[in-house]
Amino acid sequence: MFDTPEAKFAVTTVREAAQIARRVQKELVVEAIAKDDKSPVTVADFASQAVVAKRLSDAFPGEVLVGEESAASLRTEEGRATLEQVTHFVRHVFPDATTRDVCEWIDRGAVETPPPRYWTLDPVDGTKGFLRGDQYAVAFAQVSNGQVQVGALGCPELEEGNRPAKNGAGCVLLAVRGQGTVVQALDAEEGAGWTKITVSDHAAEVDARLLCSVEKAHTDTGGIGLLVKTLAITADPVPMDSQAKYAVLASGAGDVNLRLISPNMPDYREKVWDQAAGSIVVEEAGGRVTDLDGKPLDFSQGRTLAENRGVLATNGKLHDALLTGLKQIGA
To answer: Where does Mg(2+) bind (predicted)?
Structure first.
């Protein structure tokens, strides 16, 4: 179980990228916070994507990465200082890396039309969480013919997939299609055991624990409030940003994760890297993930889920009730 080359690669790569993010956070964030500077997360994003892209090309030559970042801004005069910082952190992994190498590696993720089989990466999901030392995640997945086959989440501020722990051991979650979802400490030694996780068995809407973004700009709070009222949900919501929400849902510490379409952006479509790893982590833990209309997520449409509208992830037992509630409120 979980011994395929793809699964092993996903885990080791996510571990490495998460450690890079931790290093950037430790060295740069404290000073930046005082200046309201968001550049550390930019450095972490670029450095993580560069390393993952290089690892992928070495391990699976010719395979495609669909990543969040492009090096275009780093090649400008304004981006030179950031590029130097990114290269500094990449050199902790590849000591001989040049700034040119780094830009080329990052741009391996700038594919507009991926083939049927590809990998997708969100190098640091959760900008504000990263900056304030709260939840963020490295999300990496392998897709084949529109369906995620392998997904790994690195959550440096989450232990055992369900317990926030600032500066704690962190965790990595791995899911392989048809084999379940497991969790392990982020810094676990090679050969350490994995723990299998499953979603909750809550079946009553009133008890549904909604995983809600801390950053209000990330969600349609009005729509979620109306849904809560419509379904008479009384359970306290679980505030959390990033794909760490998927980890918490998969481990049974939450029941529902919603991505409602904002009324201000009715044509918005989710990016593949924002949903791929998290969705299979939940599904293989026994949950269910669809769009707001109940359709399976289709990862064959390029860099976005162009054929899907929003996302609904649940423990499975609550899914139909949530879909009905969404229809009732016109979401």
So the answer is: 68, 122, 125, 274
